[in-house]
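To illustrate the input format used throughout this study, we show a single complete record. The first block contains the structure-token representation of the backbone; no residue identities are included at this stage. The design step must infer an amino acid for every position from geometry alone.
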């Protein structure tokens, strides 16, 4: 059904003028009544379609509003988002992700909302998710992995977002350990990974991605304006949210598939390539001491590796890192 509708749109978009019902029914090998029914469904999804007797159909305008259907058309994935659920407004896509998981929905199910009332960050923090301005989505994964490897999925997701930005702009995205996507020191995106595990095996992961896309500066809450930004603010142009979601899902699937086949090494390399302040000196304070360290990279368990001035190396999990400002190198 969906792929027929996608083919229908492709046919109509290829033609500048009208395409007759007969032509469409011949090309798609469906009845003219079926063509008419599909047209009605397209209208429901926000397509403006003109039907003229003896001439046929013509698309006047495509929807600017996202729907589950429009998201799936043009989605070049094999498994990710093949089940995709879209809402105008939810409290949190994470919550829905967990519900879908307990209903047994498959690996790769995606939930997307235009707005979230109670978008959540890590440690019960709040994630600002204004309507139609960003990507607020959760991906349900059922990886065949032990729980200790779950942090790798967060790191993987961060590299996917960085790769997407690099693919579409000449900006320099960076990943601040463990999972903030920064552009020019400001947070454009955050990732929240929540897991259910049993007997050394992950049952499922709900991986939440929040990405600020089309906010202007005055649409970022004042209290975080100094440290948050959007793709639009950084690139100077409006983004097509639907295409951006599709690009993220395509890159996510590719990256995930090669991770499953080849292991963590490539993700580690990519993460370190984008890693904020990797190779630079920062101040670290733990309960025990405060010290200067050079950040070296990440570990397979998701820890950050740092070296002090005597050459001793340490793995950091939740140490307070004073990231400093202005240390950005293109
Ligand atoms: P985090 O704990 O790293 O970041 C939360 C902190 O970031 C907040 O305390 C605030 O300072 C700042 N912040 C809040 N909103 C924004 C924003 N829109 N842009 C930049 N900074 C902000 C990061 O948590 C994980 C966020 C995941 C969000 C996704 S959206 C889809 C899914 N559903 C859901 O409820 N959460 C995830």
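Output of the design step:
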């Amino acid at each position: 059904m969906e792929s027929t509708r996608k083919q229908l749109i492709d046919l109509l978009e290829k033609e500048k003028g009208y395409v007759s019902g007969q032509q469409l029914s011949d090309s798609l090998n469906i009845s003219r009544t079926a063509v008419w029914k599909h047209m009605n469904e397209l209208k429901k999804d926000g397509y403006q379609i003109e039907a003229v007797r003896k001439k046929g159909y013509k698309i006047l305008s495509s929807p600017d509003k996202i729907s589950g259907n429009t998201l799936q058309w043009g989605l070049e994935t094999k498994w990710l988002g093949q089940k995709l659920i879209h809402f105008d407004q939810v409290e949190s896509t994470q919550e829905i992700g967990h519900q879908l998981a307990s209903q047994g929905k498959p690996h790769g199910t995606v939930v997307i909302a235009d707005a979230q009332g109670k978008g959540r960050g890590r440690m019960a923090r709040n994630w600002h998710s204004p309507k139609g301005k960003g990507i607020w989505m959760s991906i349900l994964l059922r990886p065949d992995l032990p729980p200790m490897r779950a942090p790798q999925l967060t790191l993987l997701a961060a590299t996917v977002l960085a790769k997407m930005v690099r693919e579409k702009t000449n900006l320099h995205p960076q990943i601040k350990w463990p999972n903030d996507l920064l552009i020019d020191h400001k947070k454009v995106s955050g990732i929240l990974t929540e897991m259910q595990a049993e007997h050394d095996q992950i049952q499922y992961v709900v991986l939440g991605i929040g990405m600020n896309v089309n906010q202007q500066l005055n649409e970022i809450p004042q209290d975080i304006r100094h440290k948050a930004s959007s793709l639009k603010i950084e690139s100077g142009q409006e983004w097509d949210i639907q295409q951006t979601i599709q690009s993220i899902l395509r890159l996510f699937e590719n990256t995930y598939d090669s991770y499953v086949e080849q292991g963590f090494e490539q993700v580690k390399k990519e993460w370190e390539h984008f890693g904020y302040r990797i190779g630079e000196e920062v101040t670290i304070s733990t309960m025990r001491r405060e010290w200067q360290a050079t950040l070296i990279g990440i570990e397979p368990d998701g820890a950050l590796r740092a070296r002090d001035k005597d050459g001793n190396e340490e793995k950091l999990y939740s140490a307070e890192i004073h990231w400093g400002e202005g240390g950005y190198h293109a």
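Structural context for interpreting the output: Residues 92-94, 116, 119-122, 125-129, 136-138, 180, 187, 190-192, 208-210, 212, 224, 228 surround BTX (CB under 6 Å). Confidence is low (pLDDT under 50) at residues 326-330.
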